[in-house]
Amino acid sequence: MTAALENPAPVKGGARSEGSSGVRRRSAWETGPVRRSMSLSTQLLVLQIAIVLVIVVGTGAVAALLAAQSNRDAYRDRMIAIAQSVAGLPTVVETLLARDPEHQIQPIAEAVRKSSGLSYVVVTDDQGIRFSHPNPARIGEKVSTDPSIALSGKVQVETQTGTLGESWRVKVPIHGPREDVIGVVSVGIFETDLQAQFVDDLPGLIVAPLAAAVIGVLGSVLLGWLLRRRIYGLESEEIRTMLDTREAMLHGIQEGFIAVDADGRLVVVNDAAARLLDVRSAEIIGEDAARVLDEELARFLLSGETSETPVLSGERVLVVHGAAVLVKGRNVGHIAMLRDRTELEETLRDLRGARSLADDLRAQSHEFSNTLQVLSGLLETEQTDAALSFIHRVGGGGALPTDQLLHGIDDIEVSALVLAKSARAQELGIDLAVAPESHLREVEQDDDLLTIVGNLLDNAIEAVGSAGGRILLGIRDDVAPGRITVVVDDDGPGIPAPLRDAVFDIDVSDKERVPGKERRGIGLTIVKRVAQRLGGTATAGASAWGGARFVVDVPWPPDSEASR
User: Could you check whether 38-252 and 253-340 share the same CATH topology?
Assistant: First the structure.
């Protein structure tokens, strides 16, 4: 079974693959051959690398644009501050009002230009005539760009092309003593210088995205390796084929199959197991097995036992065979195969009763044959009076006085069950009788009632043993309307008082172990569970004969939901 889970073989034929949800999957043999152009891990690696590169390149480009804009904004703020400081110098204002200002302003402007690292600092009057310029030959000429915005008293920031070339420049007004505009200060830096500075900073901007790309690619390779390891090196079409095969196999077999992972959570419950456990597989998948399964079954499943063991789940006796699931030598969970032994137990029980009845009938036949021989001898000797006396003395004969045994029980199936149990009891020398006050009409859906009566009588017969004894069965449906009460008394050893509440629990019994019979206490446990499901009670106490007394009281007819 472990090998089948590790590498299940494809199912032959056109079987339908259908999960518990009823949704039909397309199986591998329906989809046809799959072309493998590239392995799943390679596809994932290529896709992840492409995503990483797109993200890194996009992020790097955005970062570069932001860095360039940030550098330009920094220069703008710096140029505004320098231009405003030059425009506010008293020397500049005073010399602009003098007759020959260029001899005073040119040295100041050049000193500022060299110390600030700008491309130029130009001071003009209100007519646009230059009083400073990096090229002294341009002093006294009119500026080549329009200074009207700055002369209107506003700060002008833009890229313009002048006599020195294209530059990123700032123009601010120079205010006189009466706050009138008497000139303009224009400072700027060449666009080529800005671009050159950006290129110088570019290696620093490239290193971080490049490092991120390398880390991303390595991470993609590692992720692909981990993913491939998690799926045991399988490709997508192999996984699909295994899934289709698994669904067809699990839901096609008649035996129950359940599996738990290493944490004890249910991962597989096929249709047969859901039927045997009376659950919906979709509702318990992923749940803790100890919480949703019967205690004994959950304990067996989680313990990792491998021996075939009968367990009680609900009212069913299941034969469970377990195994550990090993994948590459690692334990990843446990599985269990479930077979219903309840019907087999009932069949064997009926067979034992039929065999006992047959043995009793053979004994009766042998006894009747002896009687006929005696009568034949008496008649041959013409001793008719003696023959008549012998007939009156032996009576009707027979080993199964059904009229006396089954009085008050009109249900045919219950009568047949009591008759079979009586034959078995008679073979063991046990007197099994039906209480005179018993009353049971013909009932429908009497499977639960047969289970209760059969298990209680089996328990009593085992308790009394082969040394002889008495058992009294009472069944009444006329004491309380809509209820049936079953009472079984015996004169066996009885049940110790401390065990009377626990005797209905699984594996709790005061009887000695019987060779060849592994479990004890299952019958009474089933009786208690059937009674509880029907909304009734099952109790144990002491009989008037000193043995055990069991009383089961259930509503009848049972509710349709309760009888499921």
Answer: yes
